[in-house]
């Protein structure tokens, strides 16, 4: 019998020395009274192009990618809202991948399962609230981001259905401000997801000393590396989930 601990990690960073100014271009509540010039608020959404009330992407087949947002020029995304049918556990939000690309780059700056990106772990749905992210108002059905995501020369957001079944309905909107030009000191939003099986202690996980006296770790051996970042910017935070699974002769972890 082998015991393993599966760890899922979503680390979020905004590479900018003056990232607070990005919120000032249309995102911060403290700037509501400030008159803006050369700023236009816009939205891209799944609205019904026929003028009806079917405001969604319908039947996204498994294995298919859909582009949610693709614009040219400069701007700052300041609000994303998404809801998906069916909800968990019928459809795993761990297997819907969101990718975000800035300034024509081919490598995504954001690549993560959509559930963990919005603070939803373990393939579950629950209400969650923080300053930049939220899920609610019932059973985590609506996924919301208020992170500022600047771009100087275009942006694209896509999702990929890796669930093994069709997504029945996908509703979304992306709010952003369109700028004549992005200030030079603006960074780019990055987020990445890690999923790793880690070895348990020989006698099992001794959390809260349930198996006996808890030892000490003075060397950092076995610590999980949350982020290894180089370059100018700052680390915003992370969400971490862990799940224990016990199998005979094998190990498996889920987030």
Question: What's this, in brief?
Answer:
This protein has 2 helices and 15 strands. It has 255 residues and is mainly β.
Strand content: 35-45%
What is the number of helices? 2
* CATH architecture classification name: Sandwich
Rough outline: globular
Name the helicity range. Answer: under 10%
Query: Main β-sheet: number of strands, strand sense, barrel status?
Result: 8 strands, antiparallel
Q: Order of SSEs, N→C?
A: EHEEEEEEHEEEEEEEE
Radius of gyration: 20 Å
CATH fourth-tier homologous superfamily: Protein of unknown function DUF2961
The overall pLDDT, averaged over residues, is 83
Terminal Cα span: 21 Å
Q: Low-confidence parts lasting 5 or more residues at pLDDT below 50?
A: 16-27, 244-255
Alpha-beta classification: mainly beta
CATH uppermost class: Mainly Beta
Q: What is the total tally of β strands?
A: 15
Structure explained in plain terms:
The protein has 255 residues and is mainly beta. The protein has one domain: Jelly Rolls, CATH 2.60.120. The protein is built from 2 helices and 15 strands. It has helices spanning 20-24, 114-117; strands at 2-15, 39-45, 57-60, 65-71, 74-85, 96-102, 110-113, 128-129, 133-136, 142-145, 149-151, 155-161, 167-179, 188-199, 234-247. The strands form 2 sheets. Strands 2, 3, 5, 8, 9, 10, 11 and 13 form an 8-stranded antiparallel β-sheet that branches. The chain has a 7-stranded mixed β-sheet with strand order 4-12-6-7-14-1-15. The longest helix has 5 residues, at 20-24. The radius of gyration is 20 Å and the shape is globular. 29% of the residues are buried.
């Amino acid at each position: 019998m082998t015991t393993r601990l599966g760890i899922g990690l979503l680390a979020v960073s905004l590479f900018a020395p003056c990232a607070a100014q990005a919120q000032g271009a249309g995102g911060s509540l403290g700037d509501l009274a400030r008159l803006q010039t050369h700023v236009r608020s816009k939205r891209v959404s799944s609205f019904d192009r026929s003028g009806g009330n079917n405001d969604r992407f319908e039947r996204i087949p498994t294995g298919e990618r859909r582009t949610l947002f693709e614009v040219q020029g400069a701007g700052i995304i300041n609000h994303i809202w998404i809801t998906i049918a069916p909800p968990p556990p019928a459809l795993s939000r761990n297997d819907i991948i969101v990718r975000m690309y800035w300034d024509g780059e081919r490598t995504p700056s954001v690549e993560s399962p959509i559930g963990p990106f919005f603070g939803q772990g373990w393939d579950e749905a629950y209400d969650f609230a923080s300053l930049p992210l939220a899920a609610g108002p019932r059973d985590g059905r609506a996924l919301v981001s208020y992170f500022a995501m600047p771009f100087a020369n275009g942006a694209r957001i896509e999702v990929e259905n890796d669930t093994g079944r069709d997504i029945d309905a996908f509703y979304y909107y992306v709010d952003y401000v369109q700028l004549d030009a992005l200030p030079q000191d603006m960074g780019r939003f990055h987020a990445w997801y890690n999923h790793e099986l880690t070895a348990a202690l020989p006698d099992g996980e001794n959390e809260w000393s349930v198996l006996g006296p808890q030892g000490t770790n003075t060397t950092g051996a076995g610590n999980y590396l949350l982020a290894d970042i180089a370059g100018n910017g700052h680390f915003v935070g992370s969400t971490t989930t862990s799940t224990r699974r016990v199998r005979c002769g094998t190990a498996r972890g889920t987030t």
